[in-house]
Specification:
Blueprint (H helix, E strand, L loop, with lengths): L9 H23 L4 H4 L12 H21 L9 H4 L5 H16 L3 H16 L2 H29 L13 H25 L3 H10 L4 H9 L3 H27 L5 H11 L11 H12 L3 H13 L6 H20 L3 H8 L4
Helix pairs in contact: 1-3, 3-5, 3-9, 6-8, 7-8, 9-10, 9-14, 10-15, 11-13, 11-14, 15-16
């Protein structure tokens, strides 16, 4: 069945993209469903090995389909969004390769966060509670010593008699320092995700124009990283309605965060939270606030990635063509002059 993807009104275009988002959500749920075998079957059961189907499905189906979605979203002129294109497996090998490369480029930005979480897990599981508390307290004390020393230096510099003193108990300060480091690692990972967010949409254009995706991505992103961060901030604003509801719902479940955190550190166990009352509000927020805004976020990213640069575009296009010609010459044995003529340079 060939779906009609002719010129569509903005509302129909949005509805089709939203429909795909729900289809993609169901496919992701199906891909992660094998993980339920880890909880449904007892330890030692051979059926627990069915959980290995999850990474296989994600790598070989979900990741390539992200590039098929990019193909459908980055349509040629006077065409609309087609579910047939978004769910096709045409040029599967290229999509699989590019999706794996994209995953590697994103995951490498998460290495600092993974290292911190791995180290924290080691301390959580293999270090006794007393040593853990002493270490966190020492971290807080070191931070407060540095903070008070810097503050007292500036107070003395301006002739103020005020002085900052290190508190007797610095456990919570140590917890805040640890959480701040984890948050910093998460921000680095998010920056890497933002930095690579345009890759699949640029890949579509590069493939259609027979250019190198790497060269085309460098050309389009050169001098536009700050603008890319601006688009990411707009996408973050679109997250706010959903995040506000999540924070409001979870806030009622954590009446005393400090006492629960202390209990978790002392007993080396996760704090017990009753999430049953939060399931329906969170599910409603996801369906009504997250999913309807998701197509807009994807459209903004695709529009930014595929927008041509106005200033310096001819020079950048020539540079991209020269680079493509050089790659083609290296791969197929053409001389540099023939590659230049293929680009129309020097004519």
């Amino acid at each position: 069945m060939q779906q009609n993807a002719g010129k569509q009104s903005p509302f129909i275009y949005y509805l089709r993209v939203l429909l795909y988002m729900f289809v993609a959500l169901l496919m992701r749920l199906a891909a992660f469903a094998p993980l339920a075998c880890l909880f449904a079957f007892p330890e030692g059961s051979p059926f627990r090995w069915l959980a290995l189907a999850c990474p296989v499905l994600v790598i070989f189906i979900i990741l390539p389909l992200r590039y098929s979605f990019a193909e459908a979203l980055v349509q040629r002129k006077e065409r609309g969004f087609s579910l047939d294109v978004a769910l096709n497996m045409h040029t599967y090998g290229e999509k699989l390769t590019e999706s794996l490369m994209h995953a590697v480029h994103v995951l490498k930005w998460g290495l600092p966060l993974a290292a911190m979480l791995g180290y924290a897990y080691y301390w959580y599981k293999d270090v006794d509670a007393l040593t853990l508390l002493k270490t966190v307290t020492a971290i807080g004390k070191g931070w407060m010593n540095a903070w008070c020393a810097a503050g007292n230096f500036f107070f003395g510099l301006f002739g103020s008699a005020n002085r900052l003193a290190v508190p007797a108990n610095t456990l919570m300060e140590g917890v805040y320092v640890v959480l701040a480091l984890v948050a910093l690692g998460a921000l680095v990972w998010l920056y890497g995700a933002v930095r690579n967010s345009a890759a699949r949409y640029v890949w579509v254009l590069a493939t259609r124009n027979e250019h190198s995706p790497r060269t085309e991505l460098r050309r389009r992103m050169r001098g536009r990283r700050m603008a890319q961060l601006g688009v990411a901030l707009v996408n973050l604003v679109l997250w706010i309605p959903f995040l506000a509801v999540v924070i409001y719902v979870l806030k009622g479940l954590m009446n005393d965060v400090t006492s629960q955190l202390m209990t978790a550190l002392m007993q080396q166990s996760l704090p017990a939270l009753n999430l049953s009352a939060a399931v329906l509000p969170l599910l409603a927020a996801f369906v009504l606030l997250y999913m309807p805004l998701l197509p807009i976020r994807r459209m903004l990213t695709a529009a930014f990635a595929t927008r041509e640069r106005r200033r310096g575009a001819p020079h950048d296009q020539t540079a991209a063509c020269q680079a493509d010609g050089a790659e083609h010459a290296a791969a197929y044995g053409e001389d540099s002059e023939a590659a230049r003529q293929n680009c129309g340079i020097g004519q």
